[in-house]
Write a structure and sequence with these properties.
Largest sheet: 4 strands, mixed
Strand order of the largest sheet: 2-1-4-7
Helix content: 10-25%
Number of domains: 2
Distance between the termini: 26 Å
CATH superfamily of the largest domain: Cupredoxins -  blue copper proteins
CATH topology of the largest domain: Immunoglobulin-like
CATH class of the largest domain: Mainly Beta
Structural class: alpha/beta
Oligomer: single chain
Number of strands: 9
Strand content: 25-35%
Order of helices and strands: HHHEEEEEEEEE
CATH architecture of the largest domain: Sandwich
Radius of gyration: 23 Å
Shape: globular
Length: 161
């Protein structure tokens, strides 16, 4: 399921990039054409004003699919024996949250049960990540699920406002 989120995110980014390129792409003019102060011509249109270009450009609502996240937040978290380098993470309800996790020493992961989100268990030098939607407000504990790491204090708080 994790790769599906990444694929959907990549597709959305590609579509947005293509839309921006199409809207902002200048028309080709011959190299020896003199510099002009007016807007370049486009397919038989003599002059295009900035207002006309803005009216023809798709609005942000049109270029974003309904599956697009309202807001994306990315955090880089590192685990050691027996703590995270971030004791608290704050996001807004509805945010798409990505946790880029790595272990500085030992064998660790990052888990938050309320959103069914968990990274792979990794050793130093093997980064991993998880992406989820924080779709319910509240305070939730995240923890390391390896052995007794949680009981030894390897926990933090995810606050969804």
């Amino acid at each position: 399921m994790k790769p599906l989120h990444l694929i959907i995110g990549a597709v959305i980014i590609v579509i947005a990039a293509v839309a921006l390129f199409v809207v902002q792409a200048p028309t080709a003019e011959p190299v020896d054409a003199p510099l002009q102060q007016e807007m370049p011509t486009m397919d038989g249109i003599d002059e295009v004003t900035e207002m006309e270009v803005l009216e023809e450009a798709p609005s942000s609502e049109e270029s974003v699919t309904t599956d697009a996240p309202s807001n994306e937040k990315t955090f880089t978290v590192s685990g050691t024996n027996f703590a995270y380098d971030m004791a608290e993470i704050r996001v807004t309800e509805g945010d798409t949250v990505t946790i880029n996790f790595s272990s500085a020493d030992g064998f660790h992961d990052w888990v938050v049960d309320a959103f069914n989100a968990a990274t792979e268990k990794v050793r130093p030098g093997t980064p991993t990540s998880v992406t989820f939607v924080a779709d319910k407000a509240g305070s939730y504990e995240y923890y390391c699920s390896v052995g007794n790491h949680r009981a030894n204090g390897m926990v933090g708080t995810l606050i969804v406002e």
